Amino acid sequence: MIENIKSTLKNSFIYSLGSISTKLAGLILIPLYTDYLTVSEYGILALLEISSQLIIAVFSMKINSALFRWYWEEEYRNKQKSIFFTTLIFTVFISLSLCIVLLKFTPYFSTLLFNTENYTYLIKLLLISAALQIISQMPLTLMRLQEKSILYSSANIVRLIITLICTIYFIVSLGKRVEAVYEAQIIGHFIFFIIIIKYILKNIEIRFQSKTLLAMLAFSFPLIFVEVSSVVFNITSRYCLNFLGTLADVGTFSLGFKVANSIHIFLISSAMLAVFPIVFKKMNDPDNKRFYSKLMTYFSFVVMIFVLTASIFSKEIIRILTDNREYWIAHEVIPLICLTIFFGMLKSLSLIGLHITKKTKTIAIITVMMTLLNICLNLFFVSYWKSIGAATATLLSQIVFFITIFKSAQKQYYIPFELIKIGKILFIGLLLYLLSFIFNEFDLFWRMTLKSALILIFPFLLYFFQFFEEIELIRIKEYWKKGKDFKNWKNLIIK
Question: Are 300 and 356 in contact (CB under 8 A)?
Fold first, then answer.
């Protein structure tokens, strides 16, 4: 287990460089957006971003997930290059079809979203950017399978730096508006493909595996519904705010969501990139269930620290990011969205059993059901409480989602998850957040100091509630005595 944990930590750190750069670019651009774009224009950008997610979910067809499942099958190991070639060609074909077919209907999409054809050019840019992103998924998936984490992060960082520079230049120097964001993204994608073209050519064998592709599509087809439903689940709140509220509501909610979602980008997403290849590698190992169980426990502990930090300092974070008072109300939704992300992480780890047993249809059915529940709750809550209602509806839906997935997965493939410990993490986290309200009216120095103290005492309260096992405490003491050497992190994990 030690070697697997070391590999996970190393790759998670390197993958996070790419993911952190994504969020860092987004955070750097927030002051730019709030200075040069109105709240309504920021709402337009937010609607385009979530529409892009939906398009990618549909047209990617989750073939990259099938590549994950097939790549390490013993009988296909001598066909890995031809399988990658097959999936890559299929993805390019789908992406070209996306552009050729849907570009003709951009005026209708503009009218549907914004009640005007004035944003037709924006929709065209969106479709081209989405098509390029779909194609890029395949080489990125291969990098994860081969644990090429340095190449993965390096290529992404270069792409994002180019995108960032172009975005700033287009908005500040050329006076462009929302279209600058997507023009810069398209340029960034082309640079990305130039960087990795040698890697792609090295890993292909020009042989089309049609039978294998059909089998992979049969596997991934239910996952299309899962992906689409998951995206709809995450974007319903903003669409509801657009139709039941205003573009300004969409803008402020989206800013709060972007800040809270940094937890997912900084931590969860980058770690999952490293974790899931190991999950499948270990599925036949005798100690795999203990690994999966401890993974959820330790992950919950770390994620809650981030959730607490973002929630307790939500007001301060928003005011640092923008001087525009129209955006300040965004801080109200951050704690609710942070908690939603926490339960989303639990749900994702609970899915391990269903992935191992190939119960993708079960995942699809549950995801569709939870998406419908989320839509209904958003329609109700948004009508009365706008942004707060949207965040509340999404949180309630995510809690039910986690419970349903957890019960179904445990029936198919039982894993002894430490739910009592996770419950302690959640209880203490909520308690500390509620206590932080006492300090909101204090002077800045005392407010920041006392709120920081709440976060620091989190692990000590867990100790008081007997969260740590005796052997874990021994390992922690040994680590403390030996110093803060990263190489000694392995001593924190129980053999």
Answer: no
Integer Cα distance of 51 and 375 in angstroms: 16
- What is the reported pTM? 0.75
Contacts of 338 (CB under 8 A, 6+ apart): 260, 263, 306, 307, 310, 311
What does the alpha-carbon distance between residue 373 and residue 361 come to, in Å, rounded to a whole number? 18
Instruction: Classify residue 479 as exposed, middle or buried by CB count within 10 Å of its CB (0-12, 13-18, 19+).
Output: middle
Rounded to whole angstroms, the Cα distance separating 123 from 44 reads 11
pLDDT tens digits for 35-93?
898 888 999 998 998 888 889 888 888 888 888 878 877 777 788 899 999 999 999 99
End-to-end CA distance of the chain: 6
Residue 410, class by beta-carbon neighbours within 10 Å (0-12 exposed, 13-18 middle, 19+ buried)?
middle
Over residues 425-468, the pLDDT tens digits come to: 999 999 999 999 999 888 989 999 999 999 999 999 999 998 88
CA 318/CA 404 separation, integer angstroms: 34
Domain boundary assignment for the chain: 2-417
Q: Is the dihedral of CA 152, 230, 38, 129 positive or negative?
A: positive
User: Are the C-beta atoms of residues 375 and 390 closer than 8 Å to each other?
Assistant: no
Place of tokens 């390019």: 92
